[in-house]
Amino acid sequence: MNAVMNRPLSIGKVALTVRDLDRVSRFYQDVLGFRLASSDAASRLTVRDAWGTSITVAVAGCL
Fold first, then answer.
1. By residue range, what is the domain housing residue 55?
2. Is 36 domain-assigned?
3. Could you tell me which residues come within 8 angstroms of residue 51 by beta carbon, excluding any fewer than 6 positions away?
4. Between 24 and 51, where is the model more confident?
């Protein structure tokens, strides 16, 4: 096997724009098991998984 196939998969930066920040926050934390890393309750939040992948989610028009 070559070295490229042995590297672990990863996700780069992810930024999403949504309409319902509370609902998305609950989904990432309760369903997917991400932890809340930071939050501006009115407009954006960042969640992180156990491997360090971060996802920033913002309300439409606030990114």
1. 11-59
2. yes
3. 10
4. 24
